[in-house]
Design brief:
The chain is mainly α and 268 residues long. Helix content is 69%, strand content 3%. The two termini are 38 Å apart.
């Protein structure tokens, strides 16, 4: 389960999406997520499926690797489907004991599950095709106007960069601790919910200690190098828009326009 978390991981390969400016990918991810909340019918989600499938294809990231991220949210998906399936009022389809499945509940449950899955996969495309440094540089550039109202944009981007870099490290550390505890006879699988929660204590305590130690070492290293924030700092590789980025913005604009038209004129 730990290895199935793809957040913060980068898949190195040469593709069109990899070569895009990180600002294009950040805006594209936002546009795709917003479009998922615009759709109210089958045709809208069919359009999102087509857009997502083409994006995965041209990213050259293996499909099975992309789907690994869904394993970590399978419980959330099940809870979302169950709650929407049984608690949404409407036209009754099936009724047994105290449970009732309605037409509206079935429709909502399917759409919510698809929306959540697409949201995770769409976000994974951005993180898997963009290095943490490029991602934070793109975020800092996009939020740069907020500096005028005294928002510490550079510090926010720096914290995001550090968090993304620490996620794979902490996952690897968790995996090592779990294997060490299992070798000493620890059992993380059997028993009821309370027993499973108690069994996590020998895992969480050393993990927190390791995380705080790494954070302290990083803070000392930054102080030793006289880090003073973003004022006056320059970039070794400044972000510059290229022709391919203009094409990317054009595709996003066309996708968003089609989404709006489908939402307005295609009957529910």
């Amino acid at each position: 389960m730990i290895r199935d978390i793809t957040l913060g991981q980068y898949y190195p390969t040469d593709s069109i999406i990899h070569r895009l400016d990180p600002r294009v990918k950040l805006i594209g991810t936002i546009v795709f997520i917003v479009s998922l909340f615009l759709f109210k019918d089958f045709f809208g989600y069919l359009l999102a499926t087509l857009f997502l499938a083409v994006s995965i294809k041209i990213s050259k990231v293996p499909f099975h690797f992309m789907m690994k991220g869904l394993k970590s949210i399978i419980v959330l998906l099940i809870i979302t489907v169950v709650f929407n399936l049984f608690l949404t009022p409407g036209e009754k389809l099936i009724e047994f004991f105290i449970f009732k499945i309605t037409k509206e509940g079935l429709r909502t449950a399917i759409f919510m599950a698809v929306r959540l899955a697409y949201l995770i996969v769409g976000s994974s495309i951005m993180t898997l095709t963009t290095t943490p440094n490029h991602l934070t540089d793109g975020l800092e550039k996009l939020l740069n106007p907020l500096n005028k109202i005294r928002v510490p944009v550079h510090e926010v981007a720096m914290m995001m960069s550090i968090a993304l870099r620490f996620i794979p490290i902490l996952l690897e550390e968790t995996d090592k601790i779990m294997k060490a505890q299992i070798a000493r006879g620890a059992d993380f699988e059997s028993g009821n919910l309370i027993k499973k929660a108690k069994s996590l204590v020998p895992l969480l305590v050393p993990l927190f200690i390791s995380a705080f130690r790494r954070a302290n070492d990083l803070a000392m290293a930054m102080e030793a190098r006289c880090y003073q924030g973003g004022t006056g700092r320059t970039k070794m590789k400044p972000l510059v828009y290229k022709k391919i980025d203009g094409i990317g913005f054009g595709v996003l604009a066309m996708y968003l326009l089609i989404c709006i038209l489908v939402n307005q004129f295609v009957p529910v």
